[in-house]
Specification:
Strand content: under 5%
Number of helices: 20
Largest sheet: none
Shape: globular
Structural class: mainly alpha
Radius of gyration: 22 Å
Mean pLDDT: 80
Order of helices and strands: HHHHHHHHHHHHHHHHHHHH
Helix content: 55-70%
Number of strands: 0
């Protein structure tokens, strides 16, 4: 054992916290700051010295390595390095976060709970961003005085057009809200082996309140794809849980009645719903510039398929969709270039960014995670692990439904929640009987 080995091993144990600290630097990557990306191979080298491997073994390693390869290729094929570099950095960061979370969360239940707590707290931060966003404030009468009193400049986030708009905020919440509801309803905080009685009660109340706030935020941001995905998953979850707990049916009916009455009382919400049904039927309104009708979405998808056909191996480069579309595949029905920030479908976003290799890697990645969660649920020795498997699967499935009509690129800022959720899922798999074969003794020494 070298002198460096125990030091490197300790650094690797908390690598996920180091990465979260470095995340703000990823947000502002430029060609001049590109050498910052060398920090990731450095962390992998530290893990290699400490634990004997660059990457911990997991069932989805090959899709992740293929994604990393496509990200590196992107740096050579993109026509706009300034556009693509932050996305490439975000993808490399995400894969690194996954590999850092797996050995930490997979060593014990308390370690997994600690990482899960960080995930939920970060989700609470996203909920706050959603609630102070103008899209939310201007639709909820209760917050209208606050919206009028606060200068509009303070409520507009930097990069609002592509980083904090209502659709992306809603899509991000789908990675968090279903899991939070599962934890709240099943009272995971009631695990008295880990939490004392008073803390269990506090955590349960906090989870319920946070789940309600997330639901309200999703509804009032009015991303239709996110709303439908969330409601479908919640209906499936309640149906599954109510099979054994009949009292949840009463709760669901009360929530629907109270929530429906609350929404119906909002004139702004009623008008927005009416506009949605008009656009979905093909009619348009004078002031709308969004990709709202089904016909306009199909035009985006058709052009995205064309780009995938023309750039099948490398894609067009991450974050280049708008420029390439406007130059080579000019749209007919769109009034604004801001409507074309991405392909409005998760698979097409990845395919146009990374080509068919990246698309194949993503599909294999999601299939692999689904199998891991299914095996974790079946093999879980205790109830908390089953609850977590159900919650992780619900959140991932909710986003995939959202991804049929919208999406978030793998290197975008909100995608950090996707990678975090994948890391938690793989860590849970390690704790199961079937996944314990992937543990390395040195990682938990």
């Amino acid at each position: 054992m070298t002198v460096l080995q125990p030091i490197c091993r300790q650094i690797s144990r908390f690598e996920w916290l180091i990465l979260l600290f470095l995340f703000p630097f990823i947000l502002f990557l430029t060609p001049d700051s590109a050498p910052f990306l060398l920090l990731f191979p450095l962390l992998w080298l530290i893990r290699r010295i400490g634990n004997g491997r660059f990457f911990p073994p997991t069932p989805i390693n090959w899709p992740l390595h293929l994604l990393l390869l496509t990200a590196v290729v992107n740096l050579f094929v993109t026509f706009d390095m300034a556009n693509s570099l932050p996305m490439v950095g975000g993808l490399i960061f995400g894969v690194s976060l996954y590999y850092a979370l797996v050995p930490f969360g997979g060593q014990s239940r308390p370690a997994l709970y600690l990482a899960l707590a960080a995930f939920i707290v970060a989700g609470a931060g996203v909920t706050f961003l959603g609630m102070v966003h103008p899209t939310f404030l201007n639709r909820l009468a209760l917050f209208q005085p606050l919206s009028d009193a606060v200068p509009a400049e303070l409520l507009q986030f930097p990069g609002d057009a592509d980083g904090f708009n209502a659709n992306r905020l809603s899509g991000t919440l789908l990675w968090i809200a279903p899991l939070t509801w599962v934890l709240a309803v099943t009272r995971l905080a009631g695990d008295r082996k880990t939490f004392p009685g008073w803390l269990s009660a506090v955590l349960t109340i906090a989870l319920i309140l946070l789940a309600l706030l997330m639901s309200l935020t999703l509804l009032y941001l009015f991303s239709r794809a996110a709303q439908v995905s969330f409601l479908v998953i919640m209906a499936l979850l309640y149906g599954l849980l109510a099979w054994k707990h009949k009292w949840l049916i009463v709760v669901a009916v009360l929530v629907v009645l109270v929530g429906g009455g609350f929404l119906a009382s909002s004139e702004t919400y009623r008008l927005r719903a009416q506009q949605f049904f008009l656009t979905i039927s093909g009619e348009t309104t004078g002031g709308s510039t969004a990709v709202e009708s089904f016909s306009s979405r199909t035009e985006v998808w058709e052009r995205a398929f064309n780009t995938l056909r023309d750039f099948p191996i490398t894609g067009m480069g991450m974050n280049n969709f708008q420029e390439v579309m406007l130059t080579y595949y000019p749209p007919v029905t769109f009034r604004s270039a801001s409507d074309l920030t991405h392909a409005h479908n998760q698979l097409l976003i990845i395919g146009t960014d990374l080509g068919l290799p990246g698309l194949i890697a993503y599909v294999a990645l999601m299939i692999g995670v689904g199998i891991m969660l299914w095996q974790s649920w079946r093999q879980a020795a205790e109830r908390p692990e089953k609850i977590l498997a159900l919650g992780f699967a619900a959140s991932l499935l909710a986003f995939e439904l959202f991804g049929l009509f919208d999406g978030i690129g793998l290197g975008e800022k909100p995608a950090v929640f996707f990678w975090f959720l994948l890391g938690l899922s793989a860590a849970l798999y390690r704790l199961s009987a079937v996944g314990s074969q992937y543990k390395i003794p040195e990682e938990t020494a």
